[in-house]
Design a protein that fits this description.
By secondary structure, this protein is an alpha+beta fold. It has helices spanning 14-26, 83-96, 141-144, 147-167, 184-200, 207-218, 260-280, 292-303, 310-334, 351-359, and strands at residues 33-38, 48-55, 63-68, 104-108, 118-122, 227-230, 239-242, 245-249, 256-259. The protein is built from 10 helices and 9 strands.
Length: 363
């Protein structure tokens, strides 16, 4: 893993972005100066983040972060990037809950200034559990923490999810429903089927992903439960911490109107993805951290809602993640970073654990 080629994350030049951002900002705050432009090392392959400061006596905020839709010419991970939707979700979460969501400021829907739509928000100071190398690996602040410190972070983090689901008025999230028919869960899954079809259009499909979709139908919950606002990418890698306390909840591009367990299953599985990967490379990882049984128990204590059908929801999370992994792998092939094997399932890093979930042997 340490020697594998890292997928490219951007085709943009930060210096050029900073220059164009300065020109755009001058139209909103004449005389404002953009300084200290940087791209965080954790920038992903989806929407991109630019950090900068504003120098102006009347600025609403000085330390800023800009969320920029992916370059449409760069083999994007997702088919669309709805920045107004993200901007609206973050504003609503700030309005209706006590979650530490960064204050959103300007929204620019015109792709002209920076090449794609974007919005500007306040920048939070703190530290984030790393994805590369994962926080389950040795050599980072979370791995080096004590058991008590990690337990405190775990407690604070699951509380974020509980408070979001309990405090946000569900009807305010109905605008997030995908088009189609059926329940919120059915529409959510149908949207993932459509995403998978987009990923493999003209390319080799994944037999494993297709088996996973079939298994989902066999495990479909008899009672789906009420829908709530889902964070979407609910994991500690999208939280900024001051010490071990959350100070900013980030990355709302996958926000959805769906049962609580969709978010909870994603939180459970995304940690397992890192943990399983770490163990496969001969390290112990963090086996006592973010365990499924602990998260389910504590969520029930905080909300009064006992998570149900979690085999379905963790399988669904692993399936959704597999579709993203497949798209990223095909993106790497597009840029000449990897070759596509005869079996496309080999492009999915967690194909073994997904296969075990499909067979009912993982948990």
């Amino acid at each position: 893993m340490a020697t594998a080629p890292r997928p490219r994350t951007s085709t943009r030049e930060p210096e050029e972005l900073g220059r164009r951002l300065g020109a755009w900002l001058d139209g909103r705050l004449p005389g404002a100066k953009v300084t200290n432009v940087s791209v965080p090392g954790s920038n992903g392959m989806s929407s991109e983040t630019l950090l900068f400061d504003i120098e102006h006596p009347d600025t609403p905020m000085r330390a800023c972060a800009l969320r920029l839709a992916a370059d449409p010419a760069a083999y994007t991970v997702f088919p669309t990037y709805d920045m107004p939707r993200q901007h609206r979700v973050m504003g609503l979460v700030a309005e209706h809950t006590d979650l530490p969501v960064p204050r959103v400021q300007w929204l620019e829907e015109d792709p002209g200034p920076l090449g794609a739509p974007f919005f500007v928000m306040a920048r939070a100071e703190g530290r984030v559990p790393p994805d590369v190398m994962p926080y389950t690996y040795e050599g980072n602040w979370l791995y080096a923490a004590t058991d008590a410190e990690r337990e405190a972070l775990q407690e604070e983090s699951i509380a974020l999810l509980a408070r979001l689901h309990d405090q946000f008025p569900a009807e305010e999230a109905e605008f997030l429903l995908p088009e189609g028919e059926g329940s919120p869960l059915r529409r959510h899954v149908d949207a993932q089927r459509a995403y998978y079809a987009w990923v493999v259009a003209g390319l080799a499909p994944s037999p494993l992903i297709e088996r996973a979709f079939a298994r989902l139908e066999e495990l479909w919950p008899a009672d789906e439960g009420p829908a709530v606002l889902n964070w979407g990418d609910a994991r500690i890698g999208n939280v900024v911490y001051d010490g071990f306390t959350p100070v900013a909840v980030l990355d709302w591009e996958m926000a959805a109107y769906a049962p609580r367990e969709v978010d909870l299953g994603w939180s459970v599985y995304l940690h397992r993805f890192f943990q399983d990967l770490t163990v496969s490379f001969g390290q112990p990882g963090l086996p006592d951290f973010l365990r499924r049984e602990d998260l389910e128990r504590r969520y029930a204590e905080l909300t009064g809602h006992v998570p149900r059908d979690m085999e379905f929801h963790t399988l669904y999370a692993a399936l959704r993640h597999a579709i993203v992994m497949l798209r990223i792998a095909y993106r790497q092939a597009h840029f000449g970073e990897v070759e596509v094997p005869a079996d496309p399932d080999g492009l999915i890093l967690h194909h073994a654990s997904l296969a075990a979930m499909v067979q009912g042997t993982y948990w």
